[in-house]
Model the fold of this input.
Amino acid sequence: MTTILPRPLDLPEFPWDQLAPAKARAAEHPGGICDLSVGTPVDDTPSFIRDALADASNAHGYPTVIGTAEVRDAIAAWGARRGMVNVGPAGVIPTIGSKEAVAWIPFLLGVRPGDTVLVPLVAYPTYDIGARLAGATPVAVNPTNPDSWPEATLVYLNSPGNPDGHVMSKDQLRAAVRWARSHGAVIVSDECYAALPWAEPYVSQGVPSLLDAQVCDGDASGLIVLYSLSKQSNLAGYRAALIYGDPTLVAPIVTARKHSGLMVPAPVQHAMAIALADTEHVQAQRAVYAVRRALLLEALTEAGLDVDPDSAAGLYLWVADPAHPTDSWALVNRLADLGILVAPGDFYGTAAHGRVRVALTASDERIAAAAQRIRQAWSAR
Done:
């Protein structure tokens, strides 16, 4: 008798698997591959955070889902520095990175088959996956034009955006909040790149949050913000992130996480608290990325490629080749011939066709090598 299981989930192919041929081609370059296709940090985790992890390594008991008082206080203080409304201890929890929160939050909030989940028109694929895991229907929409949105149960926002680096203004966020509250929808805003602004007013004033008091009228009802320390603190390997929002929404998430054992390890919680309390290392890492960004931006611009001028924050440049305005893979392959691997816009929705995402997350030496190869190749055309 054949077994009934497994029944595979209705999920698309993992996008980055499609990059294997381009990666193999790039790896053949005599100068080695410059992998700019993923946003994984390459710089060292700051030593004071590693020390904090070690200091808490005698963790013989189970951690709590809600987190220690120390980490919840640190999350609250982080939110206050960003001008976010106070949601109290019941409105914050640590998570095992932000990707798992993005993927599972619709299901944990009760989204089910027959529901509609709105995702940004150009977006990281996990928002779509989150809707599918709950059995809901994902619908791509322009995040800055809520008047065009269909009825929905949950809305994902992502500002600064991955892959395009677009930042939603306070007015645009306010419009999204008004729409959600008038339609009974929940908004989940992924803000994991908020510490990496490149343009004004965001450099001097900060990237606006969905839970900025001026955006939500001092009321967190129906709103959740997700944030990660992976980018700001080089903690991707720690899986250190957080949920901050309406306590009535956080409560069922906590209950489900208790039953399923989704707990951030105690040493990581302590390291998170120490990292969140320090802004100096965040600015130092931003300065490192600023140098890499300037090198790539100059080279890509000199090559006559179109770098999205609205890419105002985050870890990526959003690039198109005017010679192939609708074909992302043409530019992927052209750069692979130079030993440079980038991600095609096709990974981020049909509206992203023609562009590629160029990550800043490579060593200074690899970024410099990529910039030099681009200059040389396009000057020879």
